[in-house]
Design a protein that fits this description.
mainly alpha; globular
Length: 469
Amino acid sequence: MSVLSIDYSLSPHEKPRKENLWKRVALLAAPVVVEQVLHSIVQFTDTYIANNLIESSAAGALEANRQAGSAIGTVAYLIWFFGLIAGTIGVGSTALIARAVGAQHRSVANSVCGQAMIAAFVLGFVLGLLMWFGAGAIGKISGLPPEAIPNFTTYMRIMAPALPLTIVMFAAASCLRGAGDTLSTAVAFIVLDLTNALLSLGLTRGWGPLPNLGFAGIAVGTSIAYSIGAILMLIVLFSGRSKVRLYRHRLIPNWLTMKRMLRIGLPAGAEQTLQWIANFVIIIWINRMGLLSASAHLNVIRLEAFSYLVGMSFAVAASTLVGQSLGMKNVPRARKCAFISFALGGGFMGTMGLIFIALGPWLVSLITDDAEMARLAGQCMQITGFTQLAFASAMIFGAALRGAGETLSVLCTNLASIIGVRLVAVIIAIEYFDAGLKTVWLIFAGEMIIRGVLLFLQFKRGRWATIKI
């Protein structure tokens, strides 16, 4: 049994004890915090490698590094997309497994886990084919400067064969977290991230017996690491250490369970995919501003990750505990878990926002020697500092609603905000007013505040407590 698995059963002579929900939330979130912080450090490392791919003052070195940096920025959006697509499976499996664990229906949880693994592998196989044959076209569509497209294409074709295991890894993590086991997923991701960082550095520099692959070394290191992460999570699921277990006979398609999982997951997957499309369209416009803006934008996202990835850890806790509480038919507990998750996650992100405002330019200077780019990215860091509390609200209350199975209304709220406000405003600002990157981030800030308030109000209204899944 996992260290963080939760057993709600009582012996006949045992009286119910009052739970410390603050501790419960913290215990669930803590391993994910470690996992996410390490993951952001690895992303930071990839950005550093790309920004300093050629360690030379020779003519053309700065331009080559900007090319690598802008390519990695667009790659980051594609990897984000893979995670969102996996969310179509992950959100449904998390909600169903959390309720089943809360109601102590382990066979239901195991059935959902098996169907999630089947769907994830098929989805990953299809995505791998698309990336292998369409990488060049996607690079052109993304608006990358022509000189950066070869790096992007190389990365995506190296990553393509690992996509089936990558999507399985994301789905397995969702199943384990739904069961309340965040420790096993954290351990697997920590191994993954350490492997990724060491291999990517070693393969781009030719350390020891490793070949010097240049930019391609980042992709090879990531592909190997993601495959290792997937294998580790499958070992945990087959071992039965958690409150959900993967059995071979559960890998036979069960259309009733699949339908239940997708009924919850498809709205969430559609929402997150459309979010990604909106943000990808925005990155096309930013890429068209030139290598300076494209690289600066990436660096802001990488540094902001030190805030929002920790907030995401508390979103995981909120989603799991809201689902489990509803399985226990305890709505007040579900509500309290969500607000505690926001108090902890929002408190951290609000503090990070103050740090971004005070130290934004200095933070960027740590990862690049490009003074012009550091100045621009630093100003954007200060802008995004003002939005961190709203960002936490959008993530944590949105995750709590999804954990309850209320995915359709979250879809409507997010799309209205992201497409109706963010996307439209950015396109108008760039296309008709020749706005720069700072204006784009001001638009991001306004939209994020709107979305954070709307999702908080939606959770507070309480319709989620009556959802049947």
